[in-house]
Amino acid sequence: MLKIAATFLLGVIAGAGIGYFTGYSIGVEDRTGTNISSFAACAAAGYPVAESYPRQCRTPDGRNFVEDVTDGVACTMDAKLCPDGSSVGRTGPNCEFAPCPGEITR
Protein backbone atom coordinates (compact mmCIF):
# COMPACT_ATOMS: atom_id res chain seq x y z
CA MET A 1 0.00 0.00 0.00
CA LEU A 2 2.85 2.38 0.83
CA LYS A 3 4.51 1.57 -2.50
CA ILE A 4 1.32 2.48 -4.41
CA ALA A 5 0.95 5.78 -2.53
CA ALA A 6 4.60 6.67 -3.14
CA THR A 7 4.27 5.84 -6.86
CA PHE A 8 1.09 7.94 -7.09
CA LEU A 9 2.72 10.89 -5.31
CA LEU A 10 5.79 10.66 -7.53
CA GLY A 11 3.52 10.61 -10.62
CA VAL A 12 1.64 13.71 -9.45
CA ILE A 13 4.88 15.59 -8.79
CA ALA A 14 6.31 14.56 -12.17
CA GLY A 15 3.08 15.58 -13.94
CA ALA A 16 3.07 18.97 -12.24
CA GLY A 17 6.70 19.54 -13.18
CA ILE A 18 6.11 18.58 -16.81
CA GLY A 19 3.02 20.81 -16.96
CA TYR A 20 4.90 23.76 -15.48
CA PHE A 21 7.84 23.51 -17.87
CA THR A 22 5.57 22.93 -20.87
CA GLY A 23 3.54 26.01 -19.98
CA TYR A 24 6.69 28.04 -19.43
CA SER A 25 8.15 27.05 -22.79
CA ILE A 26 5.02 28.17 -24.71
CA GLY A 27 5.03 31.55 -22.97
CA VAL A 28 2.28 31.20 -20.38
CA GLU A 29 4.64 32.29 -17.63
CA ASP A 30 5.84 35.30 -19.64
CA ARG A 31 2.31 36.71 -20.03
CA THR A 32 1.97 37.92 -16.47
CA GLY A 33 1.06 41.44 -17.61
CA THR A 34 3.44 43.20 -15.24
CA ASN A 35 4.29 45.90 -17.80
CA ILE A 36 0.68 46.60 -18.85
CA SER A 37 -0.33 50.12 -17.83
CA SER A 38 -2.99 51.24 -20.31
CA PHE A 39 -5.96 50.02 -22.31
CA ALA A 40 -3.93 50.11 -25.53
CA ALA A 41 -1.12 48.02 -24.02
CA CYS A 42 -3.62 45.54 -22.57
CA ALA A 43 -5.41 45.09 -25.90
CA ALA A 44 -2.10 44.87 -27.80
CA ALA A 45 -0.96 42.10 -25.43
CA GLY A 46 -3.96 40.07 -26.56
CA TYR A 47 -5.99 40.11 -23.36
CA PRO A 48 -9.77 39.95 -23.71
CA VAL A 49 -11.56 43.20 -24.54
CA ALA A 50 -15.20 43.57 -23.50
CA GLU A 51 -17.26 45.13 -26.28
CA SER A 52 -19.01 47.60 -24.01
CA TYR A 53 -19.01 51.39 -24.18
CA PRO A 54 -16.35 52.32 -23.40
CA ARG A 55 -14.45 49.12 -24.13
CA GLN A 56 -12.65 47.43 -21.23
CA CYS A 57 -9.62 45.13 -21.14
CA ARG A 58 -8.88 42.78 -18.24
CA THR A 59 -5.50 41.22 -17.42
CA PRO A 60 -5.19 37.75 -15.87
CA ASP A 61 -4.11 39.30 -12.56
CA GLY A 62 -7.47 41.11 -12.33
CA ARG A 63 -6.51 44.62 -13.41
CA ASN A 64 -9.10 46.38 -15.57
CA PHE A 65 -8.32 49.11 -18.11
CA VAL A 66 -11.03 51.29 -19.67
CA GLU A 67 -10.60 52.83 -23.12
CA ASP A 68 -10.39 56.62 -23.04
CA VAL A 69 -13.17 57.87 -25.29
CA THR A 70 -13.23 61.55 -26.08
CA ASP A 71 -16.34 62.49 -27.99
CA GLY A 72 -15.44 64.95 -30.69
CA VAL A 73 -17.77 67.60 -32.01
CA ALA A 74 -19.62 66.52 -35.14
CA CYS A 75 -20.60 69.43 -37.35
CA THR A 76 -23.32 69.23 -39.98
CA MET A 77 -22.31 69.01 -43.61
CA ASP A 78 -23.80 72.42 -44.46
CA ALA A 79 -22.01 74.55 -47.03
CA LYS A 80 -21.94 78.30 -47.40
CA LEU A 81 -21.68 79.78 -50.89
CA CYS A 82 -19.10 82.56 -51.00
CA PRO A 83 -19.33 85.67 -53.24
CA ASP A 84 -16.50 84.40 -55.45
CA GLY A 85 -18.43 81.19 -56.22
CA SER A 86 -16.50 78.90 -53.89
CA SER A 87 -18.04 77.25 -50.86
CA VAL A 88 -16.89 76.64 -47.30
CA GLY A 89 -18.04 74.21 -44.63
CA ARG A 90 -18.42 74.30 -40.88
CA THR A 91 -15.27 73.93 -38.74
CA GLY A 92 -13.91 74.25 -35.26
CA PRO A 93 -15.30 73.53 -31.86
CA ASN A 94 -18.37 75.77 -32.38
CA CYS A 95 -19.23 74.44 -35.87
CA GLU A 96 -19.08 77.91 -37.39
CA PHE A 97 -18.59 78.43 -41.11
CA ALA A 98 -15.00 78.91 -42.17
CA PRO A 99 -14.29 82.36 -43.62
CA CYS A 100 -14.66 82.78 -47.36
CA PRO A 101 -11.48 83.45 -49.34
CA GLY A 102 -10.65 87.15 -49.03
CA GLU A 103 -13.17 87.66 -46.23
CA ILE A 104 -11.96 89.69 -43.25
CA THR A 105 -12.49 87.92 -39.92
CA ARG A 106 -12.94 89.66 -36.60
List the keywords.
106 residues, alpha+beta, 3-stranded antiparallel sheet, 2 helices, rod-shaped
Describe this structure as you would to a colleague.
This protein has three domains: 1-30; 33-69, no CATH class; 73-100, no CATH class. Helices cover 28% and strands 17% of the residues. It is built from two helices and six strands. The protein has helices at 2-25, 39-44; strands at residues 49-50, 56-58, 64-66, 79-81, 87-91, 96-97. The strands form two sheets. Strands 1-2-3 form a three-stranded antiparallel β-sheet. The chain has a three-stranded antiparallel β-sheet with strand order 4-5-6, with no helix packed on it.
Short characterization:
This protein has helices spanning 2-25, 39-44; strands at residues 49-50, 56-58, 64-66, 79-81, 87-91, 96-97. With 106 residues, the protein is of the alpha+beta class.
List the helices and strands and how they pair.
Blueprint: H1 2-25, H2 39-44, E1 49-50, E2 56-58, E3 64-66, E4 79-81, E5 87-91, E6 96-97
Antiparallel strand pairs: 1-2, 2-3, 4-5, 5-6
Distance between the termini: 98 Å
Instruction: Note the main sheet.
Output: 3 strands, antiparallel
Strand order of the largest sheet: 1-2-3
Quick one: how many beta strands?
6
* C-alpha-based Rg, rounded: 30 Å
**What is the general shape?**
rod-shaped
Mean pLDDT metric? 83
Number of helices: 2
Low-pLDDT parts are none
- Give the SSE string: HHEEEEEE
The domain count comes to: 3
The SS-based structural class is alpha+beta
Q: In which range does the helix fraction lie?
A: 25-40%
Report strand %: 15-25%
